[in-house]
Inverse folding.
């Protein structure tokens, strides 16, 4: 009888592949959510013990899992660190691309990137520095992360160049400014404490204000550079960004 039910269920699944995909997607989302829960637990351990000293057993206890269950989701600390860094930089890249494609003023686009950066590094990771520990990854895992981080930095540079071309930002070295901004944002993970007085949103607004105002164009800057509020050609902006690499 059980075998008959199995055959019927298999026939239904074969006849309804859409249902299989829906079930598979639900399982994927559930697994992703669990992995994120584990990542947040790991972030607390990293902040408490340091990334290098943290062990998988300690992370399992923090996540309320047995070590065996933890290893079901992550084969080791290397894989957990990779998931942390890969997921974080993917989200930041998505935010930068969405901002750049929007019709907002460039300064608002840059502000939104700053807010997203701090949300994903401080709020989701609770201030842990795991997303910065690229050198702790195996070479095979490190290469892909570095390529994505470089792409993200390039996206931030592109916004700065666009702002200069449109007269919103003062003339500057886009590479230098982008690295200074990203350095300030990443350093926040070193001093941020979840139990502190300021929320992540308040910190993000404050830093966005300081960093964007710091490169805002002064009266007369547009006249000096010949910039206009109208958008310049994408080809010119891309060339300028590339020249800074």
């Amino acid at each position: 009888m059980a075998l008959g039910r199995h055959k019927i269920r298999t026939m239904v699944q074969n006849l309804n592949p859409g249902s299989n995909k829906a079930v598979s997607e639900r399982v994927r989302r559930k697994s992703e959510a669990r992995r994120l829960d584990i990542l947040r637990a790991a972030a607390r351990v990293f902040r408490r013990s340091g990334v290098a000293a943290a062990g998988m057993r300690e992370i399992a206890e923090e996540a309320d899992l047995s070590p065996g269950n933890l290893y079901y989701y992550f084969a080791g600390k290397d894989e957990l660190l990779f998931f942390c860094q890969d997921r974080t930089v993917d989200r930041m890249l998505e935010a930068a691309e969405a901002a750049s494609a929007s019709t907002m003023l460039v300064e608002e686009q840059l502000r939104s990137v700053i807010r997203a950066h701090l949300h994903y590094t401080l709020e989701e990771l609770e201030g842990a520095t795991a997303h910065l520990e690229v050198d702790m990854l195996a070479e095979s895992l490190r290469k892909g992360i570095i390529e994505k981080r470089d792409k993200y930095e390039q996206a931030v540079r592109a916004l700065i160049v666009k702002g200069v071309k449109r007269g919103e930002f003062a003339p500057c070295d886009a590479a230098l400014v982008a690295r200074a901004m990203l350095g300030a944002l990443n350093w926040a993970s070193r001093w941020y404490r979840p139990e502190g007085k300021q929320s992540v949103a308040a910190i993000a607004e404050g830093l966005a204000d300081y960093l964007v105002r710091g490169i805002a164009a002064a009266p007369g800057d547009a006249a000096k550079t010949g910039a206009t509020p109208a958008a310049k050609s994408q080809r010119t902006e891309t060339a300028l960004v590339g020249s800074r690499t």
In short: The radius of gyration is 23 Å.
